[in-house]
Amino acid sequence: MLLSITLAGLLFLALPSCQLSIPWPESNLRGDANPQPPRLLKFKPDGTFHISIFEDLHFGENAWDSWGPQQDINSVTVINNVLDTEPLTGLVVLNGDLITGENTFRENSTRYIDQMVAPMVERGLNWASTYGNHDSDYNISRFAILAREQRWRNARTTSMVPNKDAGVSNYFLPVYGTDCVSEISCTPELILWFFDSRGGFAYQQKDERTGQRVGQPDWVDASVVDWFRQTNAMLVNQAGRFIPSLAFVHIPTNASLALQYSGVDANRQPGINDDVPIAQQGQGWCPDGRNDGACSYGGQDVPFMHAITTTPGLMALFSGHDHGNTWCYKWDRLVPGMTIKGNGINLCFGQHSGYGGYGSWIRGARQVVVSQEKLKDWVVDTYIRLESGASVGAVTLNSTYGKDSYPATPNDRTRCSTCIYGRR
Ligand SMILES: *[C@@H]1O[C@H](CO)[C@@H](O)[C@H](O)[C@H]1NC(C)=O
Ligand SMILES: *[C@@H]1O[C@H](CO)[C@@H](O)[C@H](O)[C@H]1NC(C)=O
Ligand SMILES: *[C@@H]1O[C@H](CO)[C@@H](O)[C@H](O)[C@H]1NC(C)=O
Ligand SMILES: *[C@@H]1O[C@H](CO)[C@@H](O)[C@H](O)[C@H]1NC(C)=O
């Protein structure tokens, strides 16, 4: 049944008919004066497609102190500076923890989206989000964030897995060749997968017994893994070949932890490696589904890890969540203790982009440069563009990544110069 649905049909179904393209009047954004984002994601005529990943922006902290709103102003500056330095960006990815939900007020908790997306709206850029554990809390829901994002035609964030317990930001976006005029007649050159690793707390719910907020599972749901496998099989079937792909998820899997334990080398996996051990999917849960603090890790990300290591063409998975880690690791072996063997997929962190959220590592955004030429060998290039304008950690995710030697990444710090934190 699923296999008979065409890709165009799937894409059509994925666009809610209630999607508003014009911002509400009270918005401070001049929607109609802004350049239009391209309708199709396409490679540029030179055969490249460039993605800028912002993660852990953590807008909306402490609205009652002056430093909270000041942090957000500085985070917008980070986005503007990076996008000014990276004018070839074809898609912006917001890879989770857009908003620090536990600090927000119910009546306006998603409004921070307006401020966050202004740099993209002003430039006529498309963006696509995954949601993180801080994007769900007593006063904020992922569904409401999606609705707020979709008021702009630039938003490509959507929700393709209807199971309401499976999270919201589960979807894919096709990227077409430069000559493509309609998705009905073109085969995608690249697929971008977005997965919701959930976490945080349920909206407007308190545990009747304890009065505490209700925790949500913090891994990619098994129903999403099923959807991914079926949808990918359909895409491969239609294309008649494996399609190169990249994936985005906020919380990394246990494989990143296991690889970190096996050693992160400053030259072979260049990047900051300060969050040791990393926090991973399934953290804080027991294998039997309890999350009462009794267990450190429940293994619920095994189906997802299995899926990403058995999907031909999936070159890399990009995560955030651990603000102090910025490396890429090629998972190409059975790491001791694990049951799942890596197939060579690259697991990458980005760079903490926001002035909200923990840590003072210099803010920046991971850049991914895909070229049709290198895709023939399933290879992509990536580096981190810092708010200072410098670039660090440039690597080629090819077959020898992990063996090649690169310059080590400096571990610089920045501070919010307009924030008065007092005793913090
Ligand atoms: C949300 O409401 C709070 C409390 O009234 C206010 O301090 C804050 O500035 C508001 N945030 C936004 C983004 O409007
Ligand atoms: C949620 O929002 C309400 C309404 O603005 C506010 O009174 C309350 O303090 C917030 N709750 C939490 C847990 O932040
Ligand atoms: C998770 O990683 C730890 C640390 O390397 C490892 O001991 C364990 O076997 C892994 N578990 C799974 C299910 O991947
Ligand atoms: C992978 O890329 C690096 C950096 O450009 C290069 O030195 C290395 O030779 C490449 N490996 C292969 C197999 O092409």
Automatic annotation (TrEMBL):
Keywords: Signal. The keyword Signal applies. One of its GO terms (cellular component) is cytoplasm. GO terms for molecular function: hydrolase activity, acting on ester bonds. It comes from the Eukaryota. CDD domains: MPP_Dcr2. Residues 1-21 form the signal peptide. Residues 56-266 form the Calcineurin-like phosphoesterase domain. Coiled coil: none annotated. The keyword Signal applies. InterPro entries: Calcineurin-like_PHP, Metallo-depent_PP-like. PANTHER family: METALLOPHOSPHOESTERASE DOMAIN-CONTAINING PROTEIN (PTHR32440:SF11), PHOSPHATASE DCR2-RELATED-RELATED (PTHR32440). This is Metallo-dependent phosphatase-like protein. It comes from Bombardia bombarda.
